[in-house]
Amino acid sequence: QEDVFKKLISHAKEYGFIFPSSEIYDGLSAIYDYGQNGAELKSNIKQYWWKAMVQMNENIVGIDSAIFMHPTIWKASGHVDAFNDPLIDNKDSKKRFRADVLLEDYCAKLEEKAQKEIEKAAKRFGDAFDKNEFETTNGRVIEYREKQKTILSRMAKSLENEDLADVKALIEELEIADPDTGSKNWTDVRQFNLMFGTKLGASADSATDLYLRPETAQGIFVNFLNVQKTSRHKLPFGIAQIGKAFRNEIVARQFIFRMREFEQMEMQFFVPPGTELSFYEEWKQKRLNWHLALGLGADNYKFHDHEKLAHYANAAADIEFKFPFGFKELEGIHSRTDFDLKAHEKFSGRKLQYFDSERNENYIPYVVETSVGLDRLFLAIFSNSLKEEVLDDGSERTVLSLPPALAPVKAAILPLMKKDGLAEYGEKIFNDLKFDFNMIYEDKDSIGKRYRRQDAIGTPFCITIDHDTLTDHTVTLRDRDTMQQERVPVADLRRIIDEKTNF
Ligand code: ATP
């Protein structure tokens, strides 16, 4: 599994999808850049989401709000007080540790220790053929590991429930020590806020403290009345947005799954009070169906209904996806009640009421939101599509079988050779089709090598121009998935590519 994940990360880099950010300066942890193919794939995912949300629903509109927002917004939303992770202070070393990081490191050390013991036992088993001794040592390691694992999973639960006393007790049970001094003398468990702070203004004393937004949703809430009044939509209606969010994540170690700078695609649906739970059920189903339509396999998704709800919600569920490291949250669907709008009314002193002409009353709408991480969705699609295939002749190929509508490059134009006018013919096809599709033109290397390169970036079609093309105006069209080649008229290319690659 770890190998599969490593292969995925190196493929993403080698083929221009994702690079570590600031790589020539050794990178920045949990920050990534999207390369030429990654940017295309990401942009296609955005379009696919935007179309399904905004274009296909006459009662949903899209906005693009600023990353910087008035600092009081984060007080109203609860992020200043509640968006925290635990920190532990060590009395002896006077150092501060993030509980989760300590936990992760400790886990890694345990694994290493267990592995060494197993190796030692295996060696002895080989030399002396003492089956009993091997089983005893191995049994001890397994028992030890299981015990630690149980404590760790209990601790994860306490962290989630923000039960800091319990976290502290469990840390003692685990006997984690300060990695530098070996001291186990913890004194305090405190909260660490996940928001990034920054300053607005030129001079230090007059500057205002701001936060980089940790979610895009608040930009929608504070614009709720602006949009409602100017779009003249009646409830129920929705506001959608795609944009960057920033979180100073404590454990950020799974490639683009958990980053410090990432993108969210969110939609807040405003409904009359009392109707929110039926809309919540409806959006849960709609969002799952949207994911299923991508064709990554129904078995790869499951709902996880939340038992413990955030302070603002009266129902919440995740759509989980089977990533290379197991089922994990991909999208959240939350019934957020009137918590946010009510809080903004209170903190801003402005009315955020809606007049319902049917009910003949003013009220604060309730909100059902759907929130999916763009980068997480990218990882889901990318990891699911990357395949190693053994072909009939025994050779192997790496293919990225992306949904064709999302593929960065829709077709590659490949003249068999440069001379005899084949290059010029290829360029003409390229220029004819470039208004409709993102394409690549390549006339170097053997045709086999060029096919493999296109397979590796997920190009659905390769178009080969040979000498016959010059007289009969047909080309060879190779399908990425079946590798079948067929002869088709140049005049049919636009229709064939469009049929396979449109949304
Ligand atoms: P998690 O429990 O994994 O930290 P969350 O419950 O905090 O996620 P939400 O606040 O509900 O996440 O955000 C909505 C979506 O945004 C998530 O479903 C996820 O796809 C995405 N997301 C959240 N945090 C990150 C991150 N650090 N990096 C990438 N995507 C993220």
Structural overview:
The strands form 7 sheets. The chain has a 7-stranded mixed sheet with strand order 3-9-10-16-13-12-11, sandwiched between helices. A 5-stranded mixed sheet has the order 20-19-21-22-23, with helices on both faces. A 3-stranded antiparallel sheet has the order 5-4-6. The chain has helices at residues 2-14, 36-55, 72-76, 79-82, 99-128, 131-160, 164-174, 217-221, 224-231, 276-292, 339-348, 374-385, 422-433, 447-457, 467-472, 493-501; strands at 18-20, 32-34, 60-63, 84-90, 96-98, 186-193, 197-200, 208-211, 237-246, 261-271, 301-305, 315-323, 326-337, 354-356, 361-363, 366-373, 386-390, 396-400, 411-415, 439-441, 461-465, 474-479, 485-489. The chain has 16 helices and 23 strands. By secondary structure, the protein is an alpha+beta fold. Strand 22 and strand 23 (485-489) form a beta hairpin. Helices cover 40% and strands 26% of the residues. Helix 6 runs antiparallel to helix 7. The protein has 3 domains: 2-82 and 200-383, BirA Bifunctional Protein, domain 2; 84-192, no CATH class; 409-501, Anticodon-binding domain (Rossmann fold), CATH 3.40.50. Bound molecules: adenosine-5'-triphosphate. Adenosine-5'-triphosphate is lined by residues 215, 247, 249, 258-259, 262, 264, 329-332, 371-373, 375-376.
